[in-house]
Structures are given as structure tokens and as C-alpha cells.
Amino acid sequence: MDTAADITAMRRAIALAARGLGSTSPNPVVGCVVLDSAGRPVGEGYHRRAGGPHAEIHALREAGERARGGTAYVTLEPCNHTGRTGPCAQALIEAGVARVVHAVDDPNPQATGGANTLRAAGIEVRGGLLAEEAEAGNAAWLTSLRLGRPYVLWKYAATLDGRVAAADGTSRWITSPESRADVHRLRAEADAVVVGSGTARTDDPQLAARGIEGAVQPLRVVVDTDAAAVRPGARVLDDTAPSLIAVAEDADTGHLPAAAVLPLPRAAAGPGLDVPALLAALYGRGVRSVLLEGGPTLAGAFVAAGVVDKVVGYLAPVLLGAGPSALADAGITTIAEALRLDVTETVRIGPDLRVTAVPGPTRKGI
């Protein structure tokens, strides 16, 4: 039976894991807390960057000999393989811990088996503690591993009546400075930020994560099917972060840097590019999470393709009454086909309301 101490320690490990968001890809975020034999916290850590020590190693180093006979709480089953770092299961055995509690079983076939290795060494192992909370914190990595494509978070900012711009096309600024700062946090947590040609043409965005200390800049991706929106000198082509311009295979790209061009097939039906092909190409480049900031047309294409895993909407207490809505044609023609979402969080951000929702279980595909 899980004790209050078990739950407290695992919840701390989950909070630690979140510190690695945006810097560990293509690895998961993981947190670890070590208690000594008397139940006192003696070490903690989190996976900080791909190729660096895992969470367990940081926590065990801090604990030292005090880990012997104690308990390690880990958000993900300790790995059982040698990659750029050694197996954490073996490190726990060598540290002399008596018990290991993990939240989520590792679904990676290359790394799984850590629990069995620990048990074979005589260590008591318990899995599944606060699994739902730990899964939510590691949703991007788990989704990408299970589906073989990047996790997609669609973010939009709109008025209370659902408009993302006025009738004359003006859109800066619908939401508050507080909401815009929060979006930079989302950028810093993502591997790639994706916008469409309309956004590139109208706003000339830089797409960097600003105001976030130590942020790893995301890959900047513009879906510019006909290679007509991004021109030489565009801010997205500066040296702040790497960039890709996704274009149709038959587009004229002579004006773009060759290294930044990503040719893709056109969509089989309708305008634009093939969205699954775009995600496959990004996955092949190590991208495990995408922040979709594109306008209504690109968002509609992603929703129609069934690849939106989370929606974050920033709603401002503003009314326009006309202008484009947040979502364009998504292939939904009747209320029976509506994409139903489960709201997981509502938070005030300055004067605005941030609503977070995810597709219901039947639409997730996992």
C-alpha cells in the first residue's frame, strides 16, 4: 500500500522531471528522488539534457552512501541498456538501494526491462505510483514513441467570440503580455515551432523562445507550400535558431537557402502539403514535440489529419464580431463528426483565460 511519504516523494520526482522539458529530446523527461533507510530525502535529480546523466545518476550522486538501504522514486522505469550513458538499473543496484518505485513502465523496447533486472538483484520494485500524473508530464515523448510521429500541441490566441484577427486583418495584440510570455514557455518546451505561410507573410515572425533563461531554441518550421511567403531577409531565416521551410516538391526555391528547404508532397486532397509527411520528416530529424502556432488554415489541416494531441487556447476578454475564426476547414461537416475534447485545465493568465484540452480517448489513437 502506498504511503503518504511514497506519494510525496513521487510527486516531487514528477515536478523535477518537468524541469527538463525542452532540453532532453529525443529522450524523455525523468525525475528521481532518493530517501534513506529512515525515509529522509537525501538526493534528487532530473534528466537535464540528451547525452547527459539520467535522473537516477544525479540523485544517487547527491545521496552517496546514504542511498544504501533506501528507496528511489523514479517517474519512468529505470533504463536497462547502455547508450550514451550506462544503465540506471545497474547504478541503483550498485548504490545498494533496497526499494525502487517507478510511475510509468518504459515502453521503449531498447530500454525496458529495468524492473526485472532490479528484482533479480533482490530489490523490491513497485510500479504504477501516480502513473497518470507522470504520463501527463511525459506526454510528448510517450506519444512520439507509441505513434512514431511528433506530439502536436496546437496553440492559438483568440477573442472571446473566437476571432484570431479583425475583419481588416489586424491581429496584434489580441491577448495580453502575460499570455504572450506564457507562449514563449511553450516554445521553449517544444522541439519545433510550426507556422503557415499566412502567418509568415503577415507577421514575419522570428519564432524564437524569448525571456526563458537557459532555453534551447526550437527548430523553426514554416509551411510555405509554393515558396512564396518566406523571402530573403525574413526574420525566421536569421541565426537565432535552425529553420526549415517546408515546400511542395515542385516549388521554385531558388531564393531560399538550400539547407533550409524541406521538399514534401502536396496534400492528396485540398491545398497545402501532406501533413503526415511533414511530421514524418520532422520525426526523422529527431523532433519529438511540435508547437503548432500556424493560422486557421494550417490548424484545420492538422485537425483534419487527426494529429492534434493537445489544444491550448488563450481567450482574451475582447469581442470583434467579424474576422477569421481560430479554426478553418477541418473536414468536419456535421455536429456528429465534431472533435470532442476533454478540458484538463483552465487558468487565468493576466486578464485572459488559458484553456487546455485533449481529444477524447477514442480519438487519440494510442
Notes on the protein architecture:
The protein is an alpha/beta fold. 27% of the residues lie in helices and 23% in strands. The chain has eleven helices and 14 strands. It has helices at 4-18, 55-63, 88-95, 114-120, 131-137, 139-147, 177-189, 197-203, 275-284, 296-304, 361-364; strands spanning 31-35, 41-46, 71-76, 99-104, 124-127, 151-159, 192-196, 219-223, 243-248, 261-264, 289-292, 310-316, 341-349, 352-359. The strands form two sheets. The protein has a nine-stranded mixed beta sheet, sandwiched between helices. A five-stranded mixed beta sheet has the order 2-1-3-4-5, with helices on both faces. The longest helix has 15 residues, at 4-18. The two termini are 29 Å apart.
Q: Secondary structure elements and their pairing?
A:
Elements: H1 4-18, E1 31-35, E2 41-46, H2 55-63, E3 71-76, H3 88-95, E4 99-104, H4 114-120, E5 124-127, H5 131-137, H6 139-147, E6 151-159, H7 177-189, E7 192-196, H8 197-203, E8 219-223, E9 243-248, E10 261-264, H9 275-284, E11 289-292, H10 296-304, E12 310-316, E13 341-349, E14 352-359, H11 361-364
Parallel strand pairs: 3-4, 4-5, 6-11, 6-12, 7-8, 7-11, 8-9, 9-10
Antiparallel strand pairs: 1-2, 1-3, 12-14, 13-14
Helix pairs in contact: 3-4
Summary keywords:
366 residues, alpha/beta, disordered C terminus, nine-stranded mixed beta sheet, elongated, five-stranded mixed beta sheet
In terms of structural class, how would the helical and strand content be classed? alpha/beta
Mean pLDDT: 92
Rounded to the nearest angstrom, the radius of gyration is 22 Å
User: What order do the SSEs take from the amino end to the carboxyl end, as H and E?
Assistant: HEEHEHEHEHHEHEHEEEHEHEEEH
Low-confidence stretches: 362-366
The percent of residues in helical segments reads 25-40%
Give the biggest sheet.
Answer: 9 strands, mixed
β-sheet strand percentage: 15-25%
Tally of alpha and pi helices: 11
Number of strands: 14
Globular, elongated, flat, extended or rod-shaped: what is the shape? elongated
Intertermini distance: 29 Å
Strand order of the largest sheet: 10-9-8-7-11-6-12-14-13
